[in-house]
Write a sequence for this structure.
């Protein structure tokens, strides 16, 4: 029996770093605080890899399945005998995989930030917030019970808020951070209600109990039904609502493009690789309950994922801010992951979708983080976010160029890059389950290749822009993480996920189905070709196309006006008809009652104070009147 | 109508009228004079009750001592023909109500009560008896209150002297708290 | 004991004097007039005691002696009160009772 006790440090160390850098960071020299933060992350990266190695390669399997190991558990709040909120560490295939993803990406982002944020005011604050985020995300993935996950879920939201609004003097950044927090908080309301319904019916918060095949969540299928769906299904849909918010699926996606106001390392860490996949992780964590007790909820997951990926892909084709293109690309790829979970079954080859989703999560983290960090290097060199200001950068930024190209090839699904393997598994799973969704995702694969290479060609080829000062390659602290992630993007496709991370813990045989692989590569190459024709050299084709399809272009460019709809609903409907009366009620009646109590007290005290007036005759009067009254009472009335 | 009844009615009328006048007049010196009349009439009542010693004491102390003291202090603190402003109506009305209510209550109680006279023989009150009582201890002796009163009078004398002394240069202590 | 005049007449007389004094105590503004009202009250009490002594306990003298001591106390009290009033007049330049209210809230 391996002792995994050291895993507690994976949680504690970033938390201590957060406290240290947050409280005392401004007393240390900036460079020292950066190095401290990075060193902490380095240690936990090492510990995560150690855990993974020990878990996957040396721990005992039962029935050929990986066991869920609890390495630490402390009861935090005991509500009843069986219902208690714990804080603990649960090790199972998906959580160990996520440990690797989160720590690797966070570590590379820390190294990158040493160079990118150099000289910024608030350097130490940045690193303390990064440590806070790492702590929260790691706590989320190793949660032993659903309430702990909720606690860390909210903590992740807080870290995101702090980091998006890092440049707090910029009004657009402040607005964006508020928007992110409020939208995700609203979605978390659904999550909380789902948790409460679920735990009320199953009498437990614990994941192992909830997801065990003989546990109360799966075996009790009787019970109340509401509008045709069982109670468990409703709670699962509500829990998924939380995932929709955090993973920026339609319709709660509006915060993700605005979140690009934060510094680029933040976008790379949070909004590409780790926080936004929290929703996917949640569904994966509760997957047995979804598969057995709430299959309608899985359908909802699949359709939401597919629609979001199509929606985002179309919008990404028209955006000119490179970070926003990447943000929509993230939304689209997460749609892939949700879809893969939605079409999956449980156990063995049925669980292909599950495995594919986790595989895609892993590879996506690598190449998306790489794309964002490279974009940061480009922005750092050119001092502008917009594609229209760039062009011909391949001569000036060689390392960035090559790593960016690797990532683009990966995301487009070209073999032997990692994206090919994971995307292929997803398409295979979709094909066997739902032909319509397969068709949608197939089309999205082509669109993805198109817009990513549109981005690539516009930045590095296109016209030879004349720059005010020659862009120079980023310093070593920024290029080394790019290279590390590029290696991950290229080679992680060869990891044997089908033996390590599956829906029931047992490995199964998986091979590439050529009937799916070849068409997907072909459509990828078609997308690349189309982009090559339109964007490699400066040409008028894009503008002519935009003019021809004027309305479609306008709608896609304005993100289908979803933000405007939200603003309308909030301002005209909610603010006017709901918030204003409630605010009036609060100010006048609730506050009014308290003020009235205070006022009455003050008035009473003023009146009572008159008894001590210092006037002799008043005292005498009260005395005489009292004596007369008492005399009347005791002589005549007291029988 | 027997003569003592007439005397009683005369004295009672003087007392009531002059006491009311004392408390309602606007000129302070007149109030003092009315008080003097009240005290003299009271002394008359005592004479009627056959307590000559008390009547004499009353005349001496009250009419001759206290009223003189009051008149001196009036002269010290205000102009002799100073008139008062009338008080506010609230005060007079409330006090009048309280007094009249109290008076009615007391009179009703008095009239209701059955006072039983004793059957023992009256004792002749003369100076010898008074003197013997005031200096004997035991059941009928009043030497203890007599001594206490002496101490009280001594204390009052000293107090009056100390309080009314003009503040000398060593004694000046002006209070330095802020007046509102 | 006096023939022809019942006890209640004396008591009612004393009551009227008493409440006249109470009225004066509560109403008057000048400190010295308040003192005079207090004297009225004390005198009415004296009449009461003497009447009781004469009608109800003619074999004893307690009421008389009580009145004697009341007179003594009243005299000393009036003396001290006058002294205080003179002091107040020196300090506040007024003996209006409404103006000497320092001991208030």
């Amino acid at each position: 029996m391996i002792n995994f006790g050291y895993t507690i440090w994976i949680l504690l160390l970033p938390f201590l770093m957060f406290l240290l850098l947050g409280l005392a960071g401004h007393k240390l020299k900036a460079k020292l605080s950066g190095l401290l933060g990075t060193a902490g992350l380095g240690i936990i990266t090492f510990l995560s890899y150690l855990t993974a190695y020990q878990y996957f390669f040396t721990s005992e399997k039962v029935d050929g399945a990986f066991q869920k190991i609890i390495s630490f558990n402390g009861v935090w709040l005991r509500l009843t005998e069986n219902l208690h909120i714990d804080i603990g560490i649960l090790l199972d295939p998906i959580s160990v995989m996520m440990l690797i993803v989160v720590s690797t990406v966070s570590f590379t982002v820390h190294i990158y930030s040493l160079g990118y944020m150099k000289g910024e005011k608030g350097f130490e604050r940045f690193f303390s917030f990064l440590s806070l985020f790492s702590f929260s995300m790691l706590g989320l993935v190793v949660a032993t019970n659903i309430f702990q996950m909720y606690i860390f879920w909210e903590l992740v939201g807080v870290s995101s808020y702090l980091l998006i609004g890092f440049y707090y003097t910029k009004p657009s950044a402040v607005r964006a951070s508020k928007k992110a927090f409020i939208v995700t908080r609203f979605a978390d309301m659904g999550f909380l209600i789902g948790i409460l319904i679920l735990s009320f019916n199953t009498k437990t918060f614990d994941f192992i109990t909830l997801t065990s095949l003989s546990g109360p969540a799966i075996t009790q299928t009787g019970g109340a039904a509401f509008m045709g769906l069982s109670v468990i299904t409703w709670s699962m849909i509500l829990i998924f609502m939380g995932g929709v918010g955090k993973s920026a699926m339609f319709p709660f996606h509006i915060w993700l493009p605005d979140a690009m106001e934060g510094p680029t390392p933040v976008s790379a860490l949070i909004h590409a690789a780790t926080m936004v996949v929290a929703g996917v992780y949640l569904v994966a964590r509760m997957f047995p309950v979804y598969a057995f007790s709430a299959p309608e909820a899985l359908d909802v997951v699949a359709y939401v994922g597919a629609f979001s990926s199509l929606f985002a892909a179309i919008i990404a084709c028209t955006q000119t801010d490179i970070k926003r293109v990447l943000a929509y690309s993230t939304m689209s790829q997460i749609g892939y992951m949700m879809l893969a979970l939605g079409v999956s079954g449980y156990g063995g080859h049925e669980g292909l979708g599950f495995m594919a989703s986790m595989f895609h999560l892993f590879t996506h983290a690598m190449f998306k983080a790489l794309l964002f960090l490279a974009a940061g290097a480009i922005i750092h060199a050119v001092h502008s976010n917009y594609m229209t200001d760039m062009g011909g950068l391949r001569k000036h930024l060689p390392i960035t160029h090559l790593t960016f190209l690797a990532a683009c090839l990966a995301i487009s699904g070209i073999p032997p890059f990692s994206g090919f393997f994971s995307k292929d598994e997803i398409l295979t799973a979709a094909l066997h389950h739902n032909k319509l969704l397969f068709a949608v995702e197939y089309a999205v694969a082509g669109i993805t290749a198109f817009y990513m290479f549109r981005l690539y060609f516009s930045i590095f080829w296109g016209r030879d822009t004349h720059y005010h000062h020659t862009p120079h390659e980023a310093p070593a602290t920024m290029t080394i993480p790019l290279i590390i992630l590029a290696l991950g993007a290229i080679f992680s496709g060869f990891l044997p996920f089908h033996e390590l991370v599956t829906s029931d813990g047992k490995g199964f045989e998986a091979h590439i189905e050529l009937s799916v692989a070849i068409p997907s590569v072909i459509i990828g190459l078609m997308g690349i070709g189309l982009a090559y024709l339109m964007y490699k050299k400066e040409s008028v084709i894009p503008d002519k196309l935009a003019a021809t399809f004027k309305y479609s272009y306008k709608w896609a460019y304005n993100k289908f006006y979803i933000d405007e709809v939200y603003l309308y609903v909030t301002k005209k409907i909610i603010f006017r008809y709901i918030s204003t009366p409630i605010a009036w009620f609060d100010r006048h009646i609730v506050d009014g009652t308290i003020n009235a109590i205070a006022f009455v007290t003050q008035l009473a005290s003023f009146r009572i104070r008159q008894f001590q007036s210092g006037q002799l005759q008043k005292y005498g009067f009260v005395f005489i009147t009292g004596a007369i009254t008492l005399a009347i009472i005791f002589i005549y009335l007291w029988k | 109508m027997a003569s003592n009844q007439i005397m009683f009615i005369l004295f009672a009328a003087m007392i009531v009228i002059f006491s009311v006048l004392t408390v309602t007049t606007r000129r302070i010196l007149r109030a003092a004079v009315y008080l003097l009349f009240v005290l003299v009439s009271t002394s008359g009542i005592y004479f009627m009750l056959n307590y000559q010693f008390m009547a004499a004491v009353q005349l001496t102390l009250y009419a001759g001592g206290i009223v003189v003291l009051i008149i001196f202090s009036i002269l010290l603190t205000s102009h002799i023909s100073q008139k008062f402003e009338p008080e506010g109506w609230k005060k007079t009305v409330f006090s009048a109500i309280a007094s009249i209510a109290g008076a009615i209550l007391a009179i009703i109680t008095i009239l209701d009560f059955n006072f039983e006279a004793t059957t023992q023989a009256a004792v002749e009150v003369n100076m010898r008896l008074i003197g013997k009582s005031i200096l004997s201890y035991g059941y009928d002796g009043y030497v203890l209150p007599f001594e206490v009163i002496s101490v009280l009078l001594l204390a009052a004398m000293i107090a009056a002297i100390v309080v009314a002394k003009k503040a000398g240069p060593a004694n000046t202590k002006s209070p330095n708290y802020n007046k509102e | 004991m006096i023939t022809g005049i019942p006890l209640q007449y004396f008591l009612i007389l004393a009551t009227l004097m008493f409440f006249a004094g109470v009225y004066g105590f509560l109403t008057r503004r000048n400190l010295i007039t308040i003192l005079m009202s207090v004297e009225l009250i004390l005198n009415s009490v004296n009449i009461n005691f003497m009447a009781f002594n004469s009608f109800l306990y003619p074999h004893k003298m307690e009421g008389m002696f009580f009145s004697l001591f009341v007179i003594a106390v009243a005299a000393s009290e009036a003396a001290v009160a006058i002294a205080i009033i003179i002091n107040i007049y020196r300090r506040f330049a007024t003996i209006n009772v409404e103006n000497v209210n320092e001991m208030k809230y």
Q: What stands out?
A: Chain A is about 70% helix and 5% strand.
